[in-house]
Design goal:
- The protein is of the alpha+beta class.
- It is built from 16 helices and 14 strands.
- A five-stranded mixed beta sheet has the order 10-11-12-13-14. Strands 1-8-9-7 form a four-stranded mixed beta sheet. A three-stranded antiparallel beta sheet has the order 2-4-3.
- Strand 13, helix 16 (365-381) and strand 14 (386-392) form a beta-alpha-beta unit.
- The longest helix has 17 residues, at 365-381.
- The radius of gyration is 22 Å and the shape is globular.
């Protein structure tokens, strides 16, 4: 069995995610989709403290780009510029290549009655609501759950509360989306506009029926491609699969020569190298990584590869937060050397940095300069005039 050092495995993982590639001189739809081809998916999240989560990984890999290019690829469907990405439950809610939609049919069948018990209960309370929703969307086209409610004259006041206080109409729309009967035609203000899957997914892709075994094999292969070198748990987490699914798929891919078993120093568990994965001699450059970046969204892998303990603190009460509300790890020359708490204050045109923290051994003027440059680049991308450094953290005084 081939042996790999931890540093070699780290460079392989970074290269697979696109951090060894030269940034394009001009960003185009092709370069945006090239970045997505590296990650295979972009996680969606409602938090917009800085920028929506699906936009940030592309910026981290190719630099400043027009976010309309990604919107166009995901939520426009013209004859000359067909839809290239589509939403579904991959690693949580995510944008995936539209041709991968059939690989999720087995999951759609499992979600026939919804992803969680509240959806099933809503369906039981309203046995005809699903058909009514489909009838409305068939007639009027893509619509939000609220618009569907108004068409059904169900727009009743609901008690104020958390965002979990969903209407039955919203829950059934989500159940139909999870089951693959509805898809997402577009988002406006991050609200899903549901449409019939047959009007979102190209007919030749919609017609593909892939068995669960074949689909899982392809998903594990895609995870291996995106990760470069990975353990079984890494491969499993990427598309939120189950061990009973991934283990046979990995064995099959090893037999086919698509994955090679390797031993990585210090990992403590078997790993698999994607055939053809590149391992550059060095990784250069800087990047700010949003909390949902595919490079770091599996925290156990992040700690194993980078010796970087990371937890998102959005749901931690403010007095108990260690680093801040929405913290971006800072990648510099192939290592995670620090982290910054960020907030975009759009009305005032400012990128706020309440805290900047160095990892052990990286509290240096060089780290501070590189981080300052990366923050300025992000501010320019977001069309913010000023970068305001706060007082928290050991890197802040150096910036």
């Amino acid at each position: 069995m081939r042996k790999m050092s931890a540093a070699t495995a780290r460079r392989t993982a970074l290269a697979a995610q696109g951090f060894a590639a030269r940034r394009p001189s001009a960003t185009t739809r092709k370069s945006v989709l090239g970045a997505v081809a590296r990650t295979q998916l972009l996680q969606l999240d409602s938090v917009s403290a800085v920028v929506r989560a699906h936009y940030a990984p592309v910026f981290s890999r190719i630099g400043a780009y027009d976010r309309a290019l990604l919107d166009d690829a995901a939520w426009s469907n013209g004859v000359r510029r067909p839809r290239r990405l589509v939403e579904y439950w991959a690693h949580e809610a995510a944008l995936i290549p539209v041709e991968d939609w059939p690989l999720m049919r087995w999951r759609m069948r499992r979600y026939e009655h919804g992803r969680w018990n509240g959806m099933r209960q809503a369906k039981e309370r309203n046995p005809t609501l699903g058909k009514d929703i489909l009838d409305v969307i068939t007639d009027v086209g893509a619509a939000t759950a609220g618009e569907v409610e108004r068409h059904l004259e169900l727009d009743k006041p609901r008690p104020k509360g958390s965002w979990w206080n969903l209407s039955d109409t919203k829950m059934i729309c989500e159940q139909l989306f999870a089951a693959g009967e509805l898809s997402v035609d577009k988002r406006v203000g991050f609200a899903r506009h549901y449409d019939l899957a047959e009007r979102v997914i190209p007919p030749e892709i919609l017609a593909r029926d892939v068995s669960e075994t074949e689909a899982v094999r392809e998903l594990v292969l895609r995870a291996g491609t995106a990760l470069g070198v990975a353990t079984e748990t890494d491969l499993r987490d990427y598309y939120r699969l189950h061990r009973s699914q991934t283990e046979p798929a990995i064995a099959d891919l090893v037999d086919a020569g698509e994955l090679e078993p390797v031993e990585v120093t210090g990992w403590g568990k078997p790993a698999y190298l994607r055939a053809g994965a590149s391992t550059p001699r060095r990784i250069e450059g800087a990047a700010l990584l949003c909390p949902f970046d595919p490079l770091i969204f599996f925290r156990a892998r992040t700690e194993r590869i980078f010796d970087f303990h990371y937890r998102i603190e959005i749901y931690t009460p403010e007095p108990k937060r260690v680093h801040g509300y929405y913290v971006f790890p800072f990648l510099l020359n192939g290592e995670l050397v620090g982290r910054v708490d960020l907030r975009a204050e759009r009305a005032a045109g400012r990128l706020l940095v309440p805290g900047a923290f160095a990892e052990p051994g990286h509290r240096t003027p060089e780290t501070a300069r590189a981080l300052t440059d990366a923050l300025r680049e992000m501010a320019d991308w977001l069309e913010l005039d000023d970068v305001v450094i706060g007082e928290r953290g050991d890197l802040a005084p150096l910036m």
